Amino acid sequence: MLTPKSTYRLQIRSSFDLTAAAETVPYLVDLGVDWVYLSPVLTAEQGSDHGYDVTDPTSVDPERGGTEAFDALCRTAHEAGLGVLVDIVPNHVGVATPAQNAWWWDLLAKGKDSRYAEAFDVDWDAGGGRIRVPVLGDSDTEEDQLKVVDGELHYYENRFPIAEGTAQPGDTGAQVHARQHYELVNWRRADSELNYRRFFGVNTLAGVRVEVPWVFDEAHSEVRRWFTESLVDGVRIDHPDGLADPAGYLERLRELSGGAYTLVEKILEPGEVLPERWACEGTTGYDGLAVVDRLFVDPAGQPALDAAVPTEPFVHMIHGTKRGITDGILRSEVLRLARLVPGSAQLDPEQSADAVAELLTCFPVYRSYLPDGADHLADAVLNAKVRRPDLGPVIDTLHPLLNPYLSDAKAELTELAVRFQQTSGMVMAKGVEDTAFYRFNRLTSLNEVGADPSIFSLDTHEVHRALLERQEFSPLTMNSLSTHDTKRGEDTRARITVLSELAGEWTEALDQLNRLAPIGDTAFASLMWQALIGAWPLSRERAHAYVEKASREADASTHWTAPNAAFEEKMHDAVDAAFDRPEVNGLITSLVEKTAAPGWSNSLGAKLVQLTMPGVPDVYQGSELWETSLVDPDNRRPVDFAARKQGLVDLAFGALPQIDDGGMAKLLVVSRALRLRRDRPELFSGYRSVLSTGSAAEHAFSFDRGGAVTAVTRLPLGLERAGGWRDTAVVLPEGTYSCAITGTGFEGGPVPAARLFETYPVALLVKEEAQ
């Protein structure tokens, strides 16, 4: 199996298509990249800038360049020595515009008689034999807007098929609608009455059943061509938690790809590991991101930050937010599970739904993969019975129904057991990532996908242990710092993290900001001001767009479905104050100035650790320079590749850049680390901790990968306050070394940290005997 030494993620869209991507190949080679990593390229909803709403899995998207451009990119990459990794989406398809999705259009036209009825998860009985499509507005006369036009049923700009023989001359749109295999309903009814499986709570992404052999084959026909024609070297699987049988899917995919490198976008909670039977090399790296970020957080700042934004413990907060999801936007899924409870259980339907919702709420990880993860279900049972003792008997009855293996190790999973597993991840994602992460705001650099914000920091011993485990158990998993899904770019987080070392000053400034520009929600205010500090300077437009999305995701003072105009006006006024009012702007810019230099130190340290630690490092597009983005779509802004290409030229012929030189120091670190990993893979074959001695030893973190030694500075402000490195030394393994970043030479044994970090707060040492 061909495996990457590093990857570089490109977001393919109409404005940066496959032809444009091919033009970046020479730059990526010069940067040191080993594989190019593409976002989804199959035909998606027209105008989609992310590609996860695939409408035709059998073709490469014409808007993204089409088949010819895709094939050309793959050939160009291979000719340059790069592998190709492509993101694919097996769980769902886009149905926002039915006419663009032939499978969905046929389903709507023919109902249960459609060949594609087997491809979608539809509970026909719950809809009276019709599939409910939530598109109608709130007026009592919405059906008056239904019109028959050119053999189709139109509702404003929405178009739907008309079943053969169901429209007669003179019929009104409403009359024709009543005869269709679908029922157009008010959009608000989706929360509790939808009868098809979705991706999370997105009505326009309908789940597909790739566990059905012919559905798998047709949905992967183009992917199969990629491997048959040796165009692609590996795949990244989007949201395997939504699949009925992730392990079975990965086995079939492994056969299709001929055993190609495979990654899964799987969120692992702290301490959780991938099921051993999964045919994949690892995850997309959020688990590693959480470890790296916490290396740079000062534990001494926690008490002050806790006091500044008092809130309930995270474990209790997420119980409330997850229960809000099961009772809210995912109520349809809960009710469907309750309908699957067999009558022989003799449970009241309302109690069944209540207990199912509580079990989903108490589930400690994204999902189980029975028989793997049965302990997680048992844990949810115990927690649910503690929180809802009134439901104890119902929960005890449900437990063996949700895990048939409790009574028979050879049992077959029922539809109830399968669907519960598919649903728990939806609840976790919406209740934790998309709600609680916007409410638990003491230090928002910790609020990242795959992380537990209640884990404030990790010491060097804990990080060494985590990286050693990575080397021993998942050496080919991906390492990420920024992705298209991260809530904040890596350098935004690195600057926010400095607030843990400035806890007193930050909390005082937060009080002043709340007095000068109050918004009436102190928890969200903390998130808002941290975001502005972390991403500053940013445009007013970006700031307003971010706070609007973030506040509605928090679902506390305002909401997506019911915006609070008064609150949002105050919030936007506060954002304007950051730009327009001298006293507010002064507080923001002062904190930006105080966090800038230590933030750059954190950025370089985190980046070098990520690039050289066990696993396959990914560089998200553009993040080889400072990456101060916020949540999507902000993190999908265009990348100036010409500037980055010129930057590599300048580094080749110029002096070493200053750390504040527009990100050039980061480009230097990234390029040197990537080139070393690509050209000297034997230097990255193991892992051993490298210890430090002296009064500031806790501020250095170092490891030896087998001839390449990474050394970084942590908690830079604390180091400065303590008087610098003084007698601190990093104890290198025996040998002679040169720094791949600066060219400086070192001998093994104790090396004064002041000399090691004289030019930059990081060093990448290469053992000369290995050359």
Automatic annotation (TrEMBL):
CDD domains documented for this protein: AmyAc_MTSase
Domain named Glycosyl hydrolase family 13 catalytic: residues: 11-652
NCBIfam families membership: trehalose_TreY
Protein name as it appears in the record: Malto-oligosyltrehalose synthase
Originating organism: Arthrobacter parietis
Taxonomic placement: Bacteria, Bacillati, Actinomycetota, Actinomycetes, Micrococcales
